Every structure is written in structure tokens, then in C-alpha cells.
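Open question from group meeting: does this chain pack into something compact, or does most of it stay loose? Before anyone orders reagents, we agreed to write out a predicted structure and look at it together. Recording both the input and the output here so the notebook holds the full record.
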Amino acid sequence: MMAQYLDIKADYPDALLFYRMGDFYELFFDDAVAAAEALDIALTKRGKHLGEDIAMCGVPVHSAEGYLLTLIRKGFRVAVCEQLENPAEAKKRGAKSVVKRGVVRLVTPGTLTEESLLEARRHNYLAAIAQIRGEHALAWADISTGALHVMSLAAPRIGPELARLGPSEVLLSDGDDAEFAHLVTEIGASITPIGRSAFDSTGAARRLCALFGVTTMDAFGSFERAEIAAMGAVVEYLEITQKGKLPLLQPPQRENLAGAMQIDAATRRNLELTHALSGGRAGSLLSVIDRTVTAGGARLLERRLSSPSRRLEVIEARQNMIAFAVEQSRFRSDLRDHLRKVPDIDRSLSRLSVDRGGPRDLASLRNALEGAEQICKIMPSGDICAELAELTGDLTGHDTLLDLLDQALIAEPPILTRDGGFIAPGYDGDLDDARQLRDEGRSVIARMQSEYAELAGISALKIKHNNVLGYFVEVTATHAEKMLSAPLNETFRHRQTTANQVRFTTVPLSEMETRILNAGGRALEIEKRLYEGLKQAVLEKAAMLAQTARALAQLDLTAALADLAVDLGWSRPVVDDSRALNIVQGRHPVVEQALRAQGAGPFVANDCDLGTAGDIWLLTGPNMAGKSTFLRQNALIALLAQTGSFVPAKSAHIGLVSQLFSRVGASDDLARGRSTFMVEMVETAAILNQADDRALVILDEIGRGTATYDGLSIAWATLEHLHDVNGCRALFATHYHELTNQADKLGRVGNATVSVKEHGGDVIFLHEVRRGAADRSYGVQVAKLAGLPDAVIERARVVLDALERGEREGGSARKALIDDLPLFSSRPSPAPVKSAPSEIEEAVRGILPDELSPREALALIYELKAKLEN
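C-alpha cells returned:
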């Protein structure tokens, strides 16, 4: 057995081998040591190898999924090795024959399908990066839903697109590891190097055509060689990990960078679109706007939020559906009630396609189709928007399949096929007979006994059973002669004679005995056969079912966003091809929700008018006044508008934004040797080098991480570059009040400030943005609010007054005032002048303490005291 284990393990050196032994998956050698530590389970030993103990640990087969999830999350890959034959079959080859085993699946982060291993409301993408002669492509698939996408892109765009998708595993060609590895690790994905042959475009094209049953990929669109290579690598890897059981992938969709708003990784992080800066989902934009009630709807929301559209017709269609749901409150409520009962079609289909599904997946599909039917019935008659009417059409056409599943399945089937009992009574006659024999064997034998007693005319005839003879007919010795005579001897055959009884058998009784003994196994085999037929019927309709799943997800998201808009007072924005960014009484959706949850009062709404009142707003004001919140909320409103959602504002007019850039907050990247200031400069450089004239840029405190004049110079030059070169719309927050003069020199720059009120030496934040420039920063007041000691605050006021007075007086006066402050003094303090010793000092120096008596010492103290007082 251990020789078999080592042979199989040699083929999977980089994976933990789950070696099936009966009801356990066992791990040996280094695999056992690593797994025992990762899973916190006992490490034991089994025999010896090369004179040393063999480490061993194991997990039960029935609960293996939980252990798999832990291992995958900790970065391991797992090769699942199953028994490929029954131990009884192995013994036929010899008493010491080893059961045949083989790896049936390689479990990796990007190839999960089990419900317990996946987050229902998130995609789990497997991605591949390909490059052919300088051309790059990115392909990604979610085998749990069947989605397959690909895009051609320039190398600098790979990082932002990976950040958008958030794949859990990325395939790289062996030669590309160094070039792209840092982009993958930055998003926390697992890197899987695979051979260059997997990225060969010719071989990839053959694999793809075979998968989709076509002679050319032109049937799905025009793909570049790099795109074919990337998709082919994904399919090759799935063939390796799934051992030939390829998932049910949908035809590939080619995405175009020009069709979506471009958002880089730093901006996604700064705006906390799908994850908060703390790392979790709580506090992100997604977490506060997600009111979907289905897993498919939740995944669709995340996709749209991660990739806002730049196509006006798409945005308008989504808005039309939301507007209809806003107006039809009863329909919206009923729709959400029905959707709550709809299971996840995509993931049930995926599990069935790779043979990891079960009866419950079939029941989920049945329940989903029933839910789709009910939703069709509640759709308003008459005047309905065209987009919703089109979705309604995708919910129908499943009558035959629904009838089949409804008739075949019980209401609540078990998860596993091997458990049996999931086929409804009356669906299959043979199954009903087998079940009757299994469950009612006694009554069947009792009926046969009654029939034989009547046939023989012997009321005392009994049918009995023992472990030697099985079932037999028994009569007393007085009736034996009759049973042995014609015509009864043609039916009853003699088996055994005892002292007082004679035993017989019949052909029907022998057959019934065999059927009763095998009834349980036969019933299960029949159910398995019926299951395979039902599964095949479902997979034949996979394309239509996937279309229904997409329609249900869109309906769910539409109703959820409408519910959000009604509850929070969001409005429908005007989105067009202009340069406008006119937002009236806009609010930050996340901050507003946090205030609402805390009962901390209403959010102060503010206006923003770029395009007509200047393309760039230079925003000044103190810390804690809300500048960063104002910057972020306008970026989020523009983003939400282009997802097709309503927005948190009284009204909004958004000219299409091609790119969204955000440089807000301070952070370092010590792992890559970058200080806070270096990270700030790298992100600012990316903005200035990439932003086009349709971009929206928000910048906060550029240059604050270095010396005052260096920082001011950088901020000054950045503002000019945004105005003169990029020509984009921007919100630029700064503490450098010197920049406010640029509004008079740069035609598209306007000043705005966050209002505060000073009272009794304290500052009150009004959180109101108005046109104009701030005259001070109120930093000392903010420091006081933060709890700095009073002594520090008072000293800071003195220093600030001196510096400001020197600034007003200028030149030498300013220098003199600064020199008066020891903290800022540029000259060393003069050495102290020594004075002549006093009379008392001379007297003390002449004292010899060891020669004084107590009385003399006391007298000397009185003498010195008298001199001091004189």
C-alpha cells in the first residue's frame, strides 16, 4: 500500500495527497506534518519507511469539505485520491492485493464548486495571463457559475483589471512568473505556474473548439491569438484539476476596455468599493448598498460596482427598470418576496456538470423554475418598460423540464445520491416494487403464504426463514404426503425433513427471496440510474437555464436598488456625454448609513458643480471638517450613476467618466521599500501619466509627506499639470493656502472651502462646502479636540502667533520673531558668565564636617542662616 501511495504522491509533489482508506482520507510523511499543523489535528505514525517512523494523520470522508476549506484558505492545494474499486474486487486478484486508487480531482483556490467551500454572494475567478509577441490578454472563468470572459489589454492595464476581478488563482506561463507575479500577490491571489504549451494558441484553439463543439471559435466572435491562448490555458488547467470532468462553461464573452470606467487598484482601495481599508466587507460601499435577496443578484451587483459602464444605452436601460420598480411599490415588494425563495441556478448547474451535484441540486433547479413561473404571473400587465418585458421572456420555456423534475423528485431530497429516497413514489414502477419489497417484505411473504395455503388446502402451511435455508414452506408431517403428490409436487419442491416438519420451496419463493434480499441495493441502483437521466435532461437545457439565472439576477438587483432608492431618498441621475458633474445636495452613502445606524443626526449634504463652475475645484479648510468625505462622495456618486443605479443626491447630472482616480489617505508599503510619501508620489504619478480629458480625479493633500516648500512645489506643479495637460475634471484638497491664488491664473480652477465656526477658542465643524478659500487651517484647535495636553496647546498657540506675526511683517522681522522661539532658534545659546563666589559659598567650602561636634555643627548652621538673612 505504501508503495502505491508513494507512486501517486510522486505525480503531485506540490499538493497534499488525501489518500482514501475506507471512511478516512489519510495523509503521510511531510504531508501529514503540514496538514496536522494547519488543521490542528493529531499527528500519529504508521509503520516505518527506510528505518524511520511514517508520520500520519487523517480526516473523515463525510466531513472532508470543512478540512479542505481550511487548507485552501491557508494556501495549500489538495489532490483527492479515491478508491477506484471495491475491496472485494481487489481480493479476487489475491488476498494481499491493494485496492486500485487514483487522483480524481486537484482542489485549488480557483477550482472550487462545493457550496460549503464558496461564498454564495461572490464570484470565485480563475484567471490566466497570456502574452504573444508583445500582445497581452487576460481570461477568467468562474467554474461555479460557468462564466468565461476574455479581454485584450496593454501590460500596464493588467494590474488594474486583476484588482477589479479579484481572482483567487492566476495562471502564469513559466517564463512570465517574474514579470507578473507582483501584480498577483498585490491582490492576494494564488500564483500557479504552468507549462508554456498550455498557452500555445494553436493547441488552445483546438481545446476550445472541442469544448464548445464547434469547428472554429469565430462562431463566438473575433478573438486575437493572445486571447485564445489565455482561454486555452484556463481550459487546460481545468482538464488537469478536474481529471477530464470539465465544468459547463458558457460561450466566451469578449470584453472591451472602452466599454467600462477604468479604475486602478489604488482608487478601488481608497474608495473602499468592495472592501474596507480594514480588509473586510463591512464599511465598504458594497456592504451598505447590497439589498439583493439572491446569490446571483449579489454577484451581479459586485460585478457592476467593480466595472461601471460607459455605454449610455446600457445605463439608461438599467435606470428605466429601477424607475419602474420605484413607481410600482406593490410589484417590487411581491417580486422580492418571490426572489427570496429562488435558489442559485448557476452553482447547482455547475456542480451537476462536474458530477459533484446531487438530488438537492435537482430540487433547487425545480424550485428556481417554479419561482420563475410565479414571478411571470406577478409581472404587471399593460404598460411595462421594454427592458423588464425582455427579462420576463427569459423566465419562461421550461414547462417540460419543470414537469419532469416535479414528478420525479420528492419535496426535500437528501444532499447525496448514495442516500437514496429522493425519487417520488409513482414515478417509476420498478423502483416502487423494489421499495415495497425492501420496506414491506413481511407483508409480501404473508400474502404468498396465504396463496400457498389456499392452493394446497392446508391452513397450517407456514412460510418461515432461517440463515441456512432462507425462505421455505413448512407443513407438519401429516400433510407431507399431500405436498409430495401430484399436482402439488409440481409447485412445491422438497428441501428438508425434520422430526415433526417437512420443508419445501417454490421457484417464485426463491425468486422473491432474492428480490427481497437485494431490494435495498436494487432500489438505490434504480434511483442512481434515474438521477443520471434527470441530470442529463437538465444539462441539455443548460443554456436556457443560464439565461433564466441571468434574468433572475437582474430582476433581483433592479428591485434591490429600487428599494434602496425609495428608503434612502436617492434620485435618478442624468447621465450623458457632456463634461458636467453637477450634484445637488450630494451625500456619502457609507458615512450617511453609519450616522443613521448610530443615531448621530443627519448627514450634511453638499453641492458640487464641475463643468460649469470650473473643471477643477481647489478645496481648502481644516482637518476634520469633511474635505475627504466630500471628495469621496462625489466620486462614488459618479460611479453609482454609471452602474445604472440611482444616487444619494437631490439631483445629479453626470457627464460620462472614462477613468476614476483617487489619491486619498496615507499609507506605506514597507514590503516593497516604499515610505508613505513614496506611495503618495507613485500613485500621483500614475494619475498624471494616465488621466485623459474625460477622467475624474480626486486628490487629497498632495505633497504633505515632505518639507513644506517641497510639498507646496509638488502640489503646485500637479495642479498645473491637471489643468494644462490632462484637461480632466478634478477635486483637489489642500492645506497649502498659497495655491488658492491659482484660481486667478488658471481659467478652469475654482476655489471652494469647508465652513467652520470658531467659538471661545474652539472650532465647530459645519461640514458645509461653499465657494471661496479658507483663511486658516485651525490645526491647533483640532489638536485640542484630539486631547493634546493643555501645556502643549498653549505653547503651540504662542509659536503659531509668532510665526503668523512674522509672516505678516516679513523679512528680518519674521526672522527675529522665530529666533526668539527656542524651538526654532538658529543660533546656539551663549555660554553662562561665571560670577565671584559669595561669602556663604566661601564659608561652606572651609567647613570640615568630620571635625565638628554636634553642638558646633548646630552653631554653624545658625551662623550661616544669619549671614543669608543679612
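Observations to bring back to the group:
Residues 788-819 form one domain.
The chain is about 45% helix and 20% strand.
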